[in-house]
Amino acid sequence: MEAKKLIKLSGKLKTKNFTSCLIKNTDLIFTDLENWVIVKNQCPGMEDAVYEDRKVFLQLLCAGESTANLGSTEVEKFPLFKTEDLHYLGKLGPEDMKKIRTAQDFICSDPLRPVMNGVFFNAGELCAANAHYLYWKRMGLEFNLSFIVPFKTLELLDGEGWSISVGEKYVVFDSFYYTVVGTLIEGRYPAYQMVIPKNYLVTWKFSCKEVYSILEGLR
Description:
The protein is of the alpha+beta class. It is built from five helices and 13 strands.
């Protein structure tokens, strides 16, 4: 992975509580204690270790300089997600990724509505809603499970070529370069199907550019 992309990806997992990173089996792992990014084979030849200052470590790593003097703690103390049985749902096509990224613009940010702070994946559909708008689409990927993925987890997905697996507590997105593990949002998502009309008496056509401009003005 390119140095700029690696540093940018790490920056999305900023946290005051935890600033270290882990090298394990040549993979580079960093976390905000709710999400984990596993960059594959980023540190060939380096032994397993925990580096306390992730920012300095990444700067030295990307510059090709030695990290030997940074110091490390025991690998076992690094907080990893607990291993669990995962259901592999399949690969997300370009259209599915486009729908997921569009849905992120409709996620509710109200901390009093935690179940709406993510995208609801429901039996082959996805839904996101705030106090004003609801976004709902049928996905090309078919599955029977229902779960809520936090906004921050989805924000870590860059590019195409992702597959998705889900367990009782975690969702895992995997690509050629890196893996994203996110903690699912617990709770019951509102019955969004109730507000979707079953019959349409009138059909209106709108310019996508015009609608986008209106929505941007309301944000």
